[in-house]
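Good morning,

Both structures are done.
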Amino acid sequence: MDEVKEISIIVKWCGKEFVINDLIDSDTVAVLRHEIFKKTQVRPERQKLLNLKYKGVNALDDLKLGLLELKSNYKLMMVGSLESDIKDVESRPLDSLVVDDFDDTDEKKEIQIHNAEVYLSKVNKRIKDYEVKQLNPPCPNKKLLVLDIDYTLFDHRSVAETGLELMRPFLHEFLTSAYENYNIVIWSATGMMWIEEKMKLLGVTVNPNYKIWFYLDSRAMISVYIPEKGVVDVKPLGVIWGKYPEYSSKNTIMFDDIRRNFLMNPRSGLRIRPFRQAHFNRDTDRELFKLMKYLKKIADCEDFDQLNHRNWEKF
């Protein structure tokens, strides 16, 4: 395998400078635009990168950054407007940036991403740089359960007078039961402040019947480029496994309502049905109750790699 070269770019926009240092030479211009969006909130399609040229013409989105031979901390000039500054802000909500989730026909693509060595350097960077703050000590000899928040445990879009109205049914019963056999980690694609607030809102942080090991936020995720799909952020479990070697695909399971979040670890992910429109579905949603039973049934399994979580309801 060729040596991976890290690339650092300084984006100059609106009189400010934004450092983009989470790039490698095999990343594309599309990945660069995605990282710029995360720093500036200027959508990729609205970014005009003035001095990013290849052979005298503007660099195309599928061009690998390594071909540009950029100097360290290359200063890139950008012109672009925020959605709040243009007329169509209401017709194009922020969620429209999210790429459609993958369906069952993309399993081969999941495996290709999982085996892509190029992304392992990003995972290693997270292992080295991301600081995990443990909330509680882990219990020895337990397996690992990694949980998403939005639409998995909590409907964060519906209107309610209290957060408890948006909590997924059986949440505390589910966590209490899971804690008997699993150390529990919360991983959300949002910021740490919002994770902490949501967990307080749901009463998770103070529940005496279970303990959360630690939280991971969007900074622990990595960006990958999928042909025909674009750039997506994913949750590589290797970040946890690198920091805590006692865990691996053999004893880890992740629940998320978006399958692309576990593209790097497709065999370890279980796609949970999203919990939306809490007011209409609160009385009928039993997803966590059923998954509580599934976790119990597989708790004694010595190797989770032998399981197919897509068939969990038939197990």
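Second structure follows.
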Amino acid sequence: MGEEKPRDGHSGKHKYAVACSIIGSIISILMGYDTGVMSGAMLFIKEDLKTNDTQVQVLAGILNVCALAGSLTAGRISDWIGRRRTISLASCIFLAGSALMGLAPNFGTLLAGRCVAGVGVGYALMIAPVYAAEISSTQIRGSVTSLPEICISFGILIGYVANYLLAKLPLVYGWRAMLGLGALPSAVLAVGVLAMPESPRWLVMQGRVEQALAVLRRVCDTDGEADERIAEIMVAAGLADDDAAASGAPHEPGSVGKGVWKEMFVQPTPPVRRILVAAFGVHFFQHLTGIEAVVLYSPRIFKAAGIVTRSEILAATIGVGVTKTVFILTAILLVDRVGRRPLYLSSLAGIIASLACLGVGLTVVERSAPHHSPAWAVVVSILTVFTFIASFSVGVGPITWAYSSEVYPLRLRAQGASVGVAINRVMNAGVSMTFVSLYKAVTIGGAFFLFAGLAVLAAAFFYFMCPETQGRPLEEIEEVFSRGCRARLRSPAAVVELPVSNVVPDGEARP
């Protein structure tokens, strides 16, 4: 019988793992800030640089197109130089992009700076949840892998506040200051990353077992738990029977991460195939719920709903940021208690209802123009923006990142997460770069009815394809996907394991 493991999620060593995850997730503030600040800055850029709607859409979405370059290379880079150095690289890239945007004399330079920042965003979105998943224990993994999402939301909120405060500057300086301030979190991270340990799972893949064990003893409650986890990680890394690896001998340079794409896409096993469908699917559907349309174009939505003055619109967007942050904090408190599936599916129910009501409200407001719109339609339109943000933030937002970072086997995690982020960015770019054209084609209300229908598909996908992972060590999750669909839909708590003494040799339980 093994040593009893403390279950207190607030132990000192768990707090240390949370602190490391928070530092690693600061990089996500950059992406959030850029999204939030751009929603307001576009109002001033259009006025200053005389941009048209096509240029506005390209500027909004090019960040995610360029994030593909970052996300598709980040997995291989992090397998090569480590998780911690990849975070540092991401912050340096984003620093360069923010400086370029803040100093941009024209639209071309501004677009180039946003492209550079996009590469850094691709790195950030891939590495932050992977590092958090690999440094944390099972009891708190759901919470810490949701931290990047709270950091994104906090960044969006800071961006909205920056819009409101800096709008008072002269036009030529205001939007440049908004975009240039994105360099500040990079400087903070450059210092904070020095205090972080490397991922123990990456260290094991490098054959640096003793160093990995030292890190685990800093984040586990007991030395016995650390020894157990190092043994599980070595098995998952395929090193358990390798005497050289077990003794800490390093792998050949550049060997870690080789053959991963072949295992994922050319000759995947049935469990790996199911894992990829689940992990890539949650990224695919996240932005089809319309979150990017609401966050990035919330000023236009509020204007369509009847809020006219620029200061009122920017103040309303701050309310969106506050709502998003508060409900993601709620999700972080709940995800390791109630599980991924209940939160995600409840979140989608709220999203579907909110989008349907938002579509009704905006349709009535639009058809009433230029006459006075009914007060109830204006109120419904504004309130359902906030209920949509709340519903998304309590489930679909954070759980997409938490779930997709924990389901991959160790050997596939970094590069699998890299492809997942690429899919996420493609969907984000698709929505952000086409939303204006979409609502002009089908009306703004019709656009949100469409998003509501897509959210129904997302709910069906998650229900049937994504098993519960709550309470499972990372090294056991592949086993969950190796079962049949019906078995995989059951919560781990519903699976009762019989004691060895109650099983006879032929496999049938005794009475």
